[in-house]
Amino acid sequence: MSRKDEKRIPRAELEQTRQIALRMAENGASVAQIAAALDCGRSTVFGWIAAYRDRGPEALAVRSGTGRPPKLSGIQEARLYALLKKNPQQLEFDFGLWTRKIVADLIEREFGVSLSLPSVGRLLHRMGMSPQRPLVRAYEQNPDLVQPRRSS
User: Which of 110, 95, 104 is nearest to 122 (CA)?
Assistant: First the structure.
């Protein structure tokens, strides 16, 4: 499979690939030859050369992607984790089981941050929490009247 099928140079190889491209350019290779040899686009090679001319060797370094900053800080996530150890009714919610909606309401109430339900699910997963099914049992049942199942 060629790199054109993958569309991207892997991050682990990117800085080395940029250095090779510049060495080839310094040795007189054309941009088209460099692009063909490294299986990337000509405009990519032009960009690397221009960045190197403007900023020097640090322009070849691979920077980590920043991404969107999290809406909750690490301290807030730790506080949320501690709050989720309690029963929702202890925190004045009507329902006795944690749902993503109740967690979203808790986050908004405690931290003033509004999160969508999928975002709450990802946050809970990142915190190591997983969905659990409640026990299927009527909470009004009278244990004295319930007959145990007999094995056949």
Answer: 104
Residues in the chain: 152
Write down the residue that tokens 């009527």 correspond to.
Answer: 138
C-alpha–C-alpha distance, residues 17 and 120, integer Å = 39
Query: Is there a contact between 48 and 60 (Cβ–Cβ < 8 Å)?
Result: yes
Helices marked H in 27-59: 31-38, 42-55
How far are the Cα atoms of 25, 40, 51 from residue 61, in angstroms, in the given order?
Answer: 18, 18, 11
Residue 134 near residue 97 (C-beta atoms within 8 A): yes
> What are the pLDDT digits (tens) for 24-43?
999 999 999 999 999 889 99
Nearest residue to 118 (alpha-carbon basis) of 104, 138, 128, 139:
104
Q: Is the pLDDT of residue 70 over 70?
A: yes
Distance CA 86, CA 56 (A): 55
Residue 144, CB-side half-sphere exposure with 13 Å CA sphere? 0
Return d(Cα 137, Cα 123) in angstroms, integer: 29
- Measured in degrees and rounded to the nearest 5, phi and psi for residue 55 equal -120, -5
Angular region, 112: left φ>0, alpha ψ -120 to 50, beta rest: left
